[in-house]
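Task: encode each sequence below as structure tokens.

Item 1
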Amino acid sequence: MSIASKVGQVTFSQKSGVYMPAIMCDKGDLYQEYDGESSAPANIAPDFSILKPILSYILTSSRVAEGVVVPSSVKWYFNDVLLAFTGNVSTNTLGGETGHFKFVPYQAGVTNYYGLQILKNLVKASVGASCTIKAVATVTTGNVSDEIQFVYSIPITKGVGNQKVVTIASGDDKYFAIREKGGSVILSAIARMGATDLTAGLTYKWYKMVNSVWTAISGQTSKNLTVTDSMVDTTGTFKVEVYQNSTLIGLDTQTVMDLSDPYDIITNPVPEDETIVSGSNGTVVYTPILVKRGQSTKAKDMTFFFTFMDSAGVVLNPSTANTAAASGTCTEAMCQQAGGNVSWLITTKD
């Protein structure tokens, strides 16, 4: 087993290096479909007013021994509009309505992360187009403050058809993050068609990414998968395939973080914001180092496996993914092949 691994995403406005931000949703990857006009949508699925998903902002850093950084404050934006709150409920008028969001404050031992709960459907608020939710955290160390942001995208499409969608939801309240030795998290596979959860005739196959290859997890064929700290090297990526009457109907991938691991990886991306602009022939180059958590100096010389993937877990660099190197490069061609953002997994050779 390798000493450590790291996962992330080449996406817009993600700052990396010392801090690693992420937004995790307890209900899995969010999306909405609708019929009719965006000003009067019908048959919205899934219905956020019932689902009430919570987005949690998780900020980790190699410079703190406990792994998790608690920001001094977090601001939330919907489509780049700063959200205002009264009594923790948003007051912005979006699509002629208010009260779409609820601010979830940090409370140690109660809500371990700042969060944003979605209370209403977002089709009218976003005029029928895909939307973004951005979190901007202020981190203060001594007299120095820094702002770390992450953008979460929610696809919104017109037309509720017969497409079956699979997503991995959090089966507990840990948001895919293991925070203590001996701990675990539960991944729960959800299959939907429109607004209906599918349950009849379903079977499941679970996989873990090992050395850039999806490897079946023996004996794990139920709806839920319990991931223990022994299954994760700092971070790990898991996949589920859902079958209905022996026919594959969908799949999804999910990252699990183990914040109790003694090692971490500082990825040192160039450019730092991990952004590739369309038509620029740009790249993002990672030259990582292995560190002991709570420190920022190299713990030992190490080479790494670099795996770049699309949203379905398809490896975009199969010719180099199994070759350990000191650096790895994500190209614009990979982004084009993925149809947008590219996820990455960096794993130590040993």
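Item 2
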Amino acid sequence: MSSSRSPAPEASEDHTSTAPLTPPEALGRDRPLKGIGYMIAAGLLFTMLDTGVKTLAQDYSPVQVVWARYVGHVVILLAWFVWLGKSSGGAMLKTGSLTGQCLRGLLLLGASTFAYLAFRSLPLLQVYVINFSSPLLVALLAVPLLKERVSWRQAMAIILGFAGVVICVGPVDWRSQPAILLPFGLTLCFALYQLTTRRFGRQDHPLTSLFYAGLAGAVVSSLVVPAFWSSIDPRDLPLFMFVGLMGAASQLTLIMAMRYAPASLVSPFLYLQIIWAALFGFVFFGDVPRPETWIGAALISVAGVMLAVSKKRSSS
């Protein structure tokens, strides 16, 4: 799973020099159907990315796969910035908080590492369902960290969502199945990543935030990957390149969804990843979801939609 499954970083208020991805409010009007279409596409691309990751993780270290994902991410974005030209492309490299962006990148790298380790032994769908509780954890952690308030509707959504997680995981012997803890590490890192995005992401354009998140992951993974490196079979090179391409494409498609429609409208459509994950897991890995997984997925999805609707009401 790519580490970014929730709405993309919030846009900067000043986009005069970064017109290639102007936010909806600057466009003058939303385009809901276009935004929904991009969000559905983003969910499919994320699942394609994670399917490639799970395939590679059977034969290569997850650290090596993480490296390929982030290096490809940065190379593709740099190529796009060059294509935009010196003025617009150069503006994308300017950030109001380099430290904050690096912190975001390290948290996203942690989320990716936990996810790729989990994919080695757990079905795609189970990892997805647990990670979809991250918006609930964000709402919970925002109280002490960002001094935000939780309404009774949001509290009910959080309780319902975490009940779904418990049902999805089921009775587990943590000592004999330690891999089941990995998605929880993913969820915590990703929730903290979203909170730091709220804190620092507003200062920069979404593509700037996306670039530095990828750059931090590429630099750190490049430093440690020699210790985990194994020679790559030439037949696997296209799949490594595919992972890098999907890493950037999925995030960019997510940003496009946010460009054309409000997050509260399009975010629930990302839960269609549950369907994609079940389908891809069955076709490529022979995974048959347990009934408990579907029940947990339903509860978490309902909770996520409740949370999105509650946020929209409280902001209006």
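Check on item 2: The two ends are 33 Å apart (CA to CA). The chain has 14 helices and no strands.
End of task.
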